[in-house]
Every structure is written in C-alpha cells, then in structure tokens.
Design goal:
By secondary structure, this protein is mainly α. It has 8 helices and no strands. The protein has helices at about 5-20, 25-45, 50-75, 90-105, 110-125, 130-150, 155-185, 190-195.
Length: about 200
C-alpha cells in the first residue's frame, strides 16, 4: 500500500472520529491531525514547490489555526457541544452512509468528497459557533484535497491563493466569534437565532 493511500485511510478515520466528538478541545485536536496529514500530501511529491506548499499547509492547518481556535475556545469558555441537532451516537452511523455516497460519486476521489460531506454535515448540525468554524475548516480541507488531487499540475500560486483565502476567512470568523461572545456572552447559534426581529 502506498503512503498516500495510508494518508487517505487515516483521513477517513479522523472524520469518523470527529462525528462522535463533543469536547471542543478534541474537535480542535482532530482538526490539527488532519492538517498534518494534508500537509504531507504535497510533500510526498518530492518537488521543491510542493514541499514548500506542504510545509506552509502544515504550519497553518496543523499549528496556527488549531492554536488560534484553542485560544478562542478558552477565551469564550466553550468546552463542549451540548446538544447537536443530530445526536453524537447517530452521527458516525450517518458517516458510513456519507462514505458510501462518496464512493458512489467517485471511488478515486472518495476521501475528499467524504470530507466535504462531513464538513458540511457538521456545519449544519453543530450549535456552537466555534464548532461551526471548525466544521467549515474541515469542509475546506476536503476542497483542498479535491483540488490537489484533480489539479496536480496547477501552478503553486493557485494553491497559495487558496491558503490565503482560508487564512483570511478563519481570521474574520475568529474575530466575529470574539465580538459575538463579548456582546451576548455566549456563542450558541440557537440563542442568536432568537434575536431575529
């Protein structure tokens, strides 16, 4: 089995794991592990540009983003996803269905499609704003792998532009989350929905 295939299997495992996680610290830890594996994908190409991209991905996705989110979770005192819209017991079972759907769409692109579906599912089923941010990043990880797999010969500048977009998006979301917490002293999106006039 090739190392790239092992990475894809581990990414699938991590996404099953995150479906059943309630603690935000664990959520962030899994996101960091995912960042390490995604960073290894371009490094395996053993090309100077790809190795550079892989190192940048590792720094951003495995270290900088998770630390930023961990600091924010401590600041807003968010420790656990209390009542997700779909129970944590049922979510991994749905994960098996998502994997089946992804394999039916494209067996070759099964892993990134599965990650995209999981990221989207978590974004709409988690109540805490910080978990929705993490879920969005999982969704983006799937997009990154899909783009990398389908466009292996794209210039590195395209990948760099994607990473910069993500960096900007995460920064805006973290700042917004901080402002929401300062204003309303919580980040439960159900309670924020009740503010609609």
């Amino acid at each position: 089995m090739q190392f790239a295939q092992i990475i894809m299997i581990l990414l699938i495992f991590l996404n099953f794991w995150i479906l059943g996680v309630s603690r935000i610290r664990s959520y962030i830890k899994i996101l960091s592990y995912q960042g390490v594996l995604i960073g290894l994908i371009p490094i395996l190409r053993l090309n100077l540009e790809m190795v550079t991209l892989g190192i940048i991905v590792l720094l951003l996705k495995a270290i900088i983003f998770p630390r930023l989110l961990l600091r924010m979770s401590k600041k807003i005192k968010a420790t656990k996803e209390e009542k997700p819209y779909i129970s944590l017991a049922l979510a991994p079972l749905l994960g098996a269905l998502f994997l089946l759907i992804a394999s039916r769409i494209s067996y070759e692109l099964m892993t990134p499609i599965f990650i995209i579906i999981v990221g989207f599912f978590l974004t709409i089923t988690r109540r805490k704003a910080i978990n929705q941010i993490i879920s969005f990043m999982i969704f983006e990880n799937g997009i990154f792998i899909l783009g990398f797999t389908m466009a292996a010969h794209f210039p590195i500048i395209v990948e760099m532009a994607i990473l910069l977009d993500v960096l900007a998006a995460v920064s805006v979301m973290v700042l917004s989350l901080d402002k929401i917490n300062q204003t309303f002293t919580h980040t439960d999106v159900d309670k924020l929905d009740s503010l609609k006039g």
